Amino acid sequence: MPYVLVIMLDFLAILAALAASWLWYLAGRRPIRRISRFEELNAADMNRMVTAFNRSSILNRRAALASAASAACVALRFVASLMADL
Question: Containing domain of residue 70, as a range?
Fold first, then answer.
């Protein structure tokens, strides 16, 4: 039974790490358009910038959560491995 748990935790850690890397890739995929100092900003420009920042922030939060889940799975795997040796 503990060996099945160890393999399952390894698999979950790998999946969570892959999810984190994919979410961070998505967060950095779209560059934000640079603004010239001669440009006049209007409400639509500000809305686009705020939306881009918010989307990036949401994806970064999700990636950090997936990374934390991966670390928790690895920690639980080590605990399960230590308990199996006892």
Answer: 2-32+43-85
CA 58 to chain centre: 9
- Chain segment 28-52, per-residue pLDDT in tens: 887 777 777 888 888 988 898 889 8
Give 1's pLDDT tier (boundaries 50, 70, 90): low
Q: What is the domain count for the chain?
A: 1
Q: Is residue 74 part of a domain?
A: yes
Say how far apart CA 26 and CA 40 lie, in whole Å: 29
In a domain, 37, yes or no: no
Q: What helix, strand, coil percent values describe the chain, rounded to 5?
A: 85, 0, 15
For the segment 71-82, the average pLDDT, to the nearest whole number, is 88
Q: Are 54 and 64 in contact (CB under 8 A)?
A: no
Identify whether the C-beta of residue 3 lies closer than 8 Å to the C-beta of residue 84: yes
- Decide if 38 is inside a domain: no
